[in-house]
Design a protein that fits this description.
Blueprint (H helix, E strand, L loop, with lengths): L3 H14 L4 E5 L15 H6 L7 E4 L4 E5 L4 H7 L6 E4 L5 H8 L5 E4 L6 H12 L4 E4 L4 H5 L12 E2 L2 H4 L3 H14 L4 E4 L2 H8 L1 E2 L12 E5 L4 E4 L7 H7 L3 E4 L4 H6 L5 E4 L6 H10 L2 E4 L5 H5 L3 H28 L7 H13 L4 E4 L4 E4 L22 E7 L1 E3 L2 E2 L2 E7 L4 H18 L2 E3 L4 H14 L9 E3 L8 E6 L14 E4 L2 E4 L3 E4 L2 E8 L8 E6 L17 H18 L5 H10 L4
Parallel strand pairs: 1-5, 3-4, 5-6, 8-13, 11-12, 13-14
Antiparallel strand pairs: 1-2, 2-3, 7-9, 8-10, 10-11, 15-18, 16-17, 17-20, 18-19, 21-28, 22-23, 24-27, 25-26, 27-28
């Protein structure tokens, strides 16, 4: 099946065979992952959409794809508007759209291993108003018409050493068992891949760019656990690491194990566990406690070993990025470089550290108008030259055993226009305001979001993405529960030890994009005379900010002071790792404004 139109026709034919009048296609896997293995890329296979968040609905005569503001431009470039309508989230939802578009009495299919129970309730209620019903399928109809669908990865598990984790897996399970006892629960189901990786101090290679393994787990109140993973992924080293208190089973045995928890009080996370898990527990006679996965918060609040590792990774990564920024300053003005050649060169600099395990996501290498596509992913057919008189946006990161990095820099190639400098400086002022923030314990990320947007708002400008996301420790580059955003999260109180991004931006459609991103660590902050405990941010990322784009007359003394102090720190951390022309370039790039 060569075309996306053919694939859509094939799915519709399969729905007829399955006696369904529609089907919902989310971009996720059985673990509610944001980034998924190739076998679970059903939305991309069906539509051509390459973003990391979205969903689709297929009805007999119409089809719609749902994306958020990050993908407004991208979805229109990748998905054929002749066959799909474009819907914006959160302005609409799948449930609301189905209520308006599904036929009277329609049977709309969904895969219960790819949706939360809350979504199922919401969609069921919406369809009921039409006399229509939501129908759980046993076999995903896309899998039936996807002839060369990849098999799930069979890569081996690897042990994440305690010298990186800072806490043994046994200690983590013991803490979880204490929590279960306090909660008067017998067991907790873990289905989020990063929670399982963190809890058992294991990593894997089953998802591109995220070092997790396809598995499920049940942790019991006696601190023993059952781990469900394909047998070919295990070896003697991992088995010894897990120890006798962890019983290992085939991943295919997981669903039956849930139905066997009869009479037990079992915790399952309504946000992270799929509807099929809740269905199986209830069918088996368990009492389900819908509580947050107990790994989520301790995983987000890094311990001292993880923080030290993150700082080492950031220093190493900052040197690789600074070498790249120097390379761009030399090579881009000559011409001949493209988005792809630059992304390859940046990855090569990271590989030269000798410690890179993987990138933390596909590098966003956006020249000129492609920089305005927030989550742009360069391919041969979209690859643009990096040209004089344009802006080049590069958002990238590395996975190292001791930490995960994520950093964005925007570079002027040649002389920027006054508008580019003005917009860049508005973004920079917001970045600095957030970096300098001091706030009381209990403050939520959503309360800080306006600090980064205020200068753009004053000029009637904005950006359609959150300002900050959590970051894992050799785990997912997008980690919850903390976020700095006014929508889609941002309700979690920030706590010392959490790592977040600080990444305001501005995007002029079809012309250029601007984003400045550093990672920050939430830390306790001593404020003289303070009447309550206070927190602030320590910036962890070290790479120069392009001074050619800074309109210094728009900065006040405090902002200039922060930028100068930041660049002095970049020079102190990165400088000793560079030499020759790269060091000379860095020294000039870090001079006081």
């Amino acid at each position: 099946m060569s075309t996306y139109e053919d694939r859509l026709k094939a799915l519709r034919a399969q729905l007829v065979r399955d006696r369904l009048d529609g089907f919902v296609v989310p971009l996720t896997d059985e673990h509610m992952s944001e980034y998924v293995g190739a076998y679970a890329q059903r939305l991309a296979w069906l539509t051509g959409f390459q973003g990391s968040a979205g969903s689709a609905v297929v009805l007999p005569e119409e089809a719609a794809i749902f994306t958020d503001g990050r993908y407004t431009l991208q979805v229109r470039e990748q998905v054929d508007g002749a066959h799909w309508t474009y819907e914006s989230v959160p302005q609409t939802s799948i449930a609301a759209w189905l209520k308006d578009h599904a036929g009277q009495g329609a049977r709309i299919g969904y895969d219960p291993w790819l949706h939360t129970a809350a979504w199922v309730r919401q969609a069921t209620q919406a369809l009921a108003q039409k006399g229509a019903e939501l129908v759980a399928v046993d076999t995903n109809p896309i899998d039936a018409v996807w002839p060369d669908r990849p098999a799930p990865s069979d890569a081996r598990l690897v042990v994440h050493d305690d010298r990186f984790a800072g806490q043994s897996a046994a200690e983590k399970r013991a803490a979880m068992a204490d929590w279960l006892t306090q909660t008067q629960a017998d067991a907790v189901v873990l289905s989020a891949l990063d929670s399982i990786a963190w809890t058992f101090n294991i990593r894997g290679k089953d998802v591109d760019r995220t070092p997790v393994a396809l598995a499920y787990a049940i942790v019991h109140a006696d601190a023993t656990a059952d781990l469900y993973v394909a047998p070919e992924k295990m070896d003697e080293t991992v088995a010894q690491h897990l120890g006798n208190a962890v019983r290992v089973h085939d991943r295919t045995a997981f669903a039956d194990a849930l139905t066997a928890l009869d009479g037990k009080r079992v915790v399952a996370d309504p946000e992270r566990a799929v509807a099929a898990i809740f269905d199986a527990l209830e069918r088996g006679g368990a009492t389900v406690l819908p509580l947050r996965d107990p790994a989520v918060l301790p995983k987000a609040i890094k311990n001292s070993v993880e923080i030290a590792g993150q700082k080492a990774a950031q220093a190493r990564d900052g040197a690789a990025l600074s070498r790249f920024l120097h390379w761009v300053s030399v090579e881009a003005p000559k011409g001949g470089q493209t988005e792809l050649s630059a992304a390859d060169r940046l990855e090569a600099f990271r590989k030269e550290t000798g410690l890179l395990e993987d990138l933390s996501f596909d590098t966003i290498s956006g020249a000129g108008p492609n920089g305005a596509v927030v989550h742009y992913r360069v391919e041969e057919k979209t690859n643009r030259p990096i040209e004089t008189g344009t802006l080049y946006l590069v958002d990238s990161g590395g996975q190292y055993r001791d930490g995960t990095t994520d950093v964005t820099r925007t570079l002027a190639i040649g002389t920027p226009t006054p508008e580019m400098r003005e917009r860049f400086t508005l973004v920079l002022k917001g970045h600095v305001a957030l970096a300098r923030a001091v706030f009381p314990v209990g403050t939520r990320g959503g309360q800080l979001d306006i600090l980064a947007r205020q200068y753009l708002w004053a000029q009637g400008l904005d950006y359609a993405h959150g300002t900050g996301h959590g970051v894992g420790s050799f785990l997912s580059v997008h980690e919850g529960p903390q976020r700095i955003a006014t929508f889609g999260g941002g309700d979690e109180p920030l706590a010392a030890g959490m790592i977040l991004s600080n990444e305001p931006g501005y995007y002029k459609a079809h012309e250029y994009g601007i984003r400045i991103e550093n990672l920050v660590l939430v830390e306790e902050r001593a404020v003289p005379g303070a009447e309550k405990p206070m927190l602030g941010f320590e910036t962890l990322t070290f790479a120069p900010i392009d001074r050619n784009l800074i309109a210094t007359d728009m900065l006040d003394a405090g902002e200039r002071g922060w930028i100068d102090a930041y660049h002095a720190r970049v020079l102190a951390v990165v400088g000793p790792q560079l030499d020759g022309d790269a060091l000379a370039w860095l020294t000039a790039a870090c001079e006081p404004l």
